[in-house]
């Protein structure tokens, strides 16, 4: 049985720009091809809805992939969409961003294992307050929190509040999924 190569964040940063997304979690290389059209449509809609909510509360911090979020030498992830801490956003480098209030991953056939297990565990370890796994095919969103042994499954609407906001962001899933 061949030895598995340990992938550091630095090694992953030097992989070719070939249209794939390369990430590493605790040294495990995660490779996903370019996403499907539906993935990009939902990503764009979610980004717009979150941006409207955050701007209404005068909050910055919404970013999308590609990104270099790293919590150590063997970890580098590129969440589809995330809300970083506004204070940390003032820094000039990706390494300045360590606190994520919300992470969104939209499932693709090639990303199911990584998004539901490998990256979910990492986000829980790093105390990401809310992690949404958007399942377009099943028209639902799994909502994870750091201590949750199981996700809350949302089929009607998402409710999320940024820690600096006074109101919730409410996203109707019928609209998001075009139902």
Written account of the structure:
This protein is of the alpha+beta class and 179 residues long. It has one domain: tt1808, chain A, CATH 3.90.1570. The protein has four helices and twelve strands; from the N terminus they run αββαβββββαβββββα. The strands form four sheets. Strands 3-6-7-8-9-10 form a six-stranded mixed sheet, with helices on both faces. A two-stranded antiparallel ribbon has the order 1-2. A two-stranded antiparallel sheet has the order 4-5. A hairpin with a 4-residue loop joins β8 and β9. The N and C termini lie far apart (48 Å). The mean pLDDT is 91.
Structure characteristics:
single chain; 179 residues; alpha+beta; tt1808, chain A; six-stranded mixed beta sheet; two-stranded antiparallel sheet; 4 helices; 24% helix; globular
Quick synopsis:
The chain is α+β, with helices and mostly antiparallel strands and 179 residues long. The protein is built from four helices and twelve strands; from the N terminus they run αββαβββββαβββββα. The longest helix is centred in the N-terminal third of the chain and has 20 residues.
The radius of gyration is 16 Å
Query: Strand order of the main beta sheet, please?
Result: 3-6-7-8-9-10
Subunit organisation of the chains: single chain
Which of globular, elongated, flat, extended, rod-shaped describes the shape?
globular
Q: What's the order of the H and E elements?
A: HEEHEEEEEHEEEEEH
Which band does the percent of strand residues land in?
Answer: 25-35%
| CATH 4th-level superfamily | tt1808, chain A
In DSSP terms, counting alpha (H) and pi (I) runs of 4 or more, how many helices?
Answer: 4
CATH architecture: Alpha-Beta Complex
End-to-end separation: 48 Å
Overall pLDDT confidence: 91
Q: Let me know the number of strands.
A: 12
Query: pLDDT under 50 segments (min length 5)?
Result: none
The figure for the number of domains is 1
Share in helix: 10-25%
The fold-level CATH name is tt1808, chain A
Major pleated sheet: 6 strands, mixed
CATH class bucket = Alpha Beta
Class by alpha and beta content: alpha+beta
